[in-house]
Design brief:
Number of helices: 14
Distance between the termini: 79 Å
Helix content: 40-55%
Strand order of the largest sheet: 2-10-9-8-7-3-4
Largest sheet: 7 strands, mixed
Strand content: 5-15%
Radius of gyration: 23 Å
Length: 409
Amino acid sequence: MTVTDTAAVPAPAAPVPPLAARVTAIGGSPVRDILAVTARPEVINFAGGLPAPELFDAEGIADAYRAVLADTPARALQYATTEGEPALRTALAARTGARGLPTDPDDLLVTTGSQQALSLLATALLDPGDTVLVENPCYLAALQAFGLAGARILPVPCDAGGIDPQALDELVARERPKLLYTVPTFQNPTGRTMPAGRRAAVAAVAARRGLWLIEDDPYGELRFEGERLPWLASYDGVRDRTVLLGSFSKVMAPGLRLGWLRAPAGLRRACAVAKQAADLHTPTVNQLAAARYLADRDLDAHVRRVAAAYRERRDAMLAGLPAALPEGAVWNRPEGGMFLWVRLPESYDTTALLPRVVRQDVAYVPGAPFYAGEQDVRTLRLCFVTQTPEEIAEGLRRLGKGLRARPAT
């Protein structure tokens, strides 16, 4: 009689547990996907929101790092507080106050890019099922952050001036959202700017209805023309419910990954707890180098030089669009920032057209993914800052060729 050793027979492996539903439900960034496809050097890429690398003050930033590592190496390479290095928060508070919003260093939390600030706010403010209002269309990574938190995202009707305050009031009364997210100055993706009167009206709705306001301002310093407009947090009645996000990515360098949020004390503390769980603190050496740069260099003068170059590039794109785009297309004229928004005629679908356009070695971002609600497939975003005026002219020539090559409908 033979005895079978069942212990020697391996049991079938059990399935690996699934990924979290919130990750599988939220797609990746189409912008990041396009950047991967168009990484070839011959492609003129209007798709990314990439600052012009030749305009970085690489020498000044390198000097700041060298000084910090020479003078305080132990501190620069050590752990830091979650809230951020005091020297940097003091400098940021001074810059914010000089622009009309009195700010104490303790009002600020330094984040690893302002994108992290959005994630922290989503963690601190949102429970699954909470309603979030966004502009229509909206910054894509904000939609991702709120979606990962399990929020119900609703678009607010917008026009060339941004949010419609009356529509906002009606939507808040009906849907009882937790917060409104807005990029009122040189918005991503449209490049539009909300006028001062509308800002006051939006603030009044938030005050009257009980609503958190998140104002994202990564582009506000890149103004080419017109007067600077007040931040939402400067309006009476909303100081206790408004968060202002800032970043060095567009005015210094995105590789530093330095952002910050200015928020009421209770929310700021909640975000600090969320940050402790995420990354403990933003890299110390980067914070100290940025503080040293602000102390030793004139960032405002650097920003003026960058804005002057960007204005020239915006003008080059505006000059070339009429010949590149089909009859019936419309676009805006941003007063600053990095983007402009195009709407093609009714029969066009910019997502379907993109592969044909990329074959001409040029790229844009289709507008459809930026919508939280019904998508407008005729739209596209163009970034005008990464290329020189000559490259922009050539890129628009290629774009026109790609658009004309579409099959008849």
